[in-house]
Amino acid sequence: xxxxxxxxxxxxxxxxxxxxxxxxxxxxxxxxxxxxxxxxxxxxxxxxxxxxxxxxxxxxxxxxxxxxxxxxxxxxxxxxxxxxxxxxxxxxxxxxxxxxxxxxxxxxxxxxxxxxxxxxxxxxxxxxxxxxxxxxxxxxxxxxxxxxxxxxxxxxxxxxxxxxxxxxxxxxxxxxxxxxxxxxxxxxxxxxxxxxxxxxxxxxxxxxxxxxxxxxxxxxxxxxxxxxxxxxxxxxxxxxxxxxxxxxxxxxxxxxxxxxxxxxxxxxxxxxxxxxxxxxxxxxxxxxxxxxxxxxxxxxxxxxxxxxxxxxxxxxxxxxxxxxxxxxxxxxxxxxxxxxxxxxxxxxxxxxxxxxxxxxxxxxxxxxxxxxxxxxxxxxxxxxxxxxxxxxxxxxxxxxxxxxxxxxxxxxxxxxxxxxxxxxxxxxxxxxxxxxxxxxxxxxxxxxxxxxxxxxxxxxxxxxxxxxxxxxxxxxxxxxxxxxxxxxxxxxxxxxxxxxxxxxxxxxxxxxxxxxxxxxxxxxxxxxxxxxxxxxxxxxxxxxxxxxxxxxxxxxxxxxxxxxxxxxxxxxxxxxxxxxxxxxxxxxxxxxxxxxxxxxxxxxxxxxxxxxxxxxxxxxxxxxxxxxxxxxxxxxxxxxxxxxxxxxxxxxxxxxxxxxxxxxxxxxxx
Length: 670
What we know:
Elements: E1 27-35, E2 38-43, H1 47-54, H2 59-69, H3 71-78, E3 88-93, E4 104-110, E5 113-115, H4 119-131, E6 142-149, E7 152-159, E8 169-172, E9 176-187, E10 191-199, E11 203-208, H5 221-238, E12 252-258, E13 269-275, E14 279-280, H6 286-298, E15 308-312, E16 318-326, E17 332-339, E18 341-350, H7 363-392, H8 399-423, H9 451-481, H10 494-534, H11 540-564, H12 568-571, H13 583-589, H14 602-614, H15 630-639, H16 656-664
Parallel strand pairs: 2-3, 4-6, 11-12, 13-15
Antiparallel strand pairs: 1-2, 1-18, 3-4, 4-5, 6-7, 7-8, 8-17, 9-10, 9-17, 10-11, 12-13, 13-14, 15-16, 16-17
């Protein structure tokens, strides 16, 4: 990583000692701002970007170049631990990239990738350009700051008193237009909705929250975000966007839910913007205001120079917007948007090369992937536990602390395995692409620096290998148990008998869950490996089925637990046999003469076969250590320490030495 400096924008920190960091690592100096509550982390200089721009790349091409070669800068500054899920940033590009009469160029960063336009960032950059000397001769009372954005040229107008910039800042947008109006979209979970699609430097879908059964002012933000994201995905699948100048701009950036007040009024209208990877704009969204004004002008709901006020539903901050002028012969308008931007400080970020999270991490995505991996690894651990308890019979008690340590290790390993994918993912991970495999966490292969080998290795290590462990464990369990021939292990007392019953019931439950996991995750693994091997295209139906089955497994497991373990709350305590430790349970467990319960379990058939085999001819007497059958067998099992079942030989009382050995054999179940 090449060292990057802040140049003029060191925030006065040049004389301060930096914390320990790698000499060859990156040192990033930033200026922190916010506009209407939406953060803006400005990177005053990125030399690698300026060198690429000097080769004559357009900003859209430079955007792709930075995403391919310098994306570690975005991840380090936008993602945790230096950033957060709502962080936004801008890279200032000077020199050749700011030619054609512009004072500076800018690339816009967010947690999921790169944007083509950002209104709140333009306002902040307007002030930054004046205060940090990027405009040679600012004029009073207002200075025009010309910026080049990936979507085109934008001009910001910033108050200037001769010493510092001020507020409010306004800007004139690129030509904005309506891409589609009254478009019917089928949104899963919400049915048919009617949306408008507008362009204000980037494309947004607009609809009233009421259509989704929500209120933009009072509904929970989580519900608004989920609904808006569903609309975004539905529009991407059902409507193809087109931009008249560049197909690089023809992508849906997000969805804006409104209060439905589109007709002109002096009262503020409220909206919330959900963009990129479910990121929420804290401000009213500058490019969103631009697109909404263009839509209202297109529908005849607003005239030129009529100013509307827009309120953010999250922070209550306000922007104003108006259609300034028509653009050429097109049905497009230049929109003026105004708001307030403020400084919050400066920062210097360093990197230590040995830090495993030096490039940042995206917690939500890594958690989603980690949950799937943790579920599979946990089932493998439970299978191994059943194997040890039934087949290997270890003599040392595991204990709660060791069990908790093993489970914690499984979860840490799951997050560690899932993290690199999202830590190294590239731009626009959530954008639909032809032939992209987008199951639960194996997203488009081309967007990761690790590529197909990492995804394939993840499937092998986290799914196929645990499946093999599960199959091995339960194959040996079933071979040892052989309910039709013998019991699991020599049983000496009533407590041991009940423990064996619990062991087999638990092993059967785990086996059912393993079959469920293999059936649910099998299509996912097959499609993932096929995609890694040949980048094969898959239909949306195949992708949806594989993803749905994988997610459904999380809901099926609790149902299996509930159906198979009515005494699960007791089984999880120190003595699992405590849930059955009653004389009535024992009598019910053992067959009683003259009563044939229907249907009979395999365990009951085994007990009956054993009793018939060893009870002797009719009329023969049994010793005190060999009960006759039925109820006597139940009472005898409650009182006499005897071997009820074994693989070879007849039942008999056990010696004192054997009793001591048996007392040392302790179950180790998780």
